Amino acid sequence: MYQPDPSAGQAPEPVRPEPPPTMVMAVRLMYAGAVVSAISLIVGLATVGSLHDSLHRAQPSLTPTQLHQLQTVLVVGSVVIELISIGLWVWMALMNKAGKPWARVVATVLFGLYTLYLLFFVIRAGAGALVPVLTWLIGLGALILLWRKDTSEYLNPKAGQQAL
Asked: Which long-range contacts (CB under 8 A, 24 or more apart) does 107-115 make?
């Protein structure tokens, strides 16, 4: 009785090339962005007590109930935004590390949105914008590395090379 070779006609699994050093460094920077965001969250939660006094000085006409509600909204909003930020940093690191070409584009769009946020934040916060500026610089470094030639060749192999 004839039994066909089960491997006949099947292409061998593509061997994934090692990512270039620029991709490795970009992913490390993305993880660093997640760490900076996590530290920012922890520091923000540790200093939440001073928020009440700051809000009271900025808005002395608020009643204690209004002040408490505003503080709660700001704290919960900040926690949610920082958790989303951490998640996006990690997600982008994982997807870029996996060699997904679309992840580089998404990272670029997210960086553009963060740049707009930073411009608004710096206008309002002035000198207190150290952490957002540091986060922006980390994102800029990662993007520069993601758009380098060797990273582009890794993400978009030519027709003769193995596809990812």
From this structure: 107/30, 107/139, 107/142, 107/143, 107/146, 108/143, 108/146, 108/147, 110/139, 111/139, 111/140, 111/143, 114/139
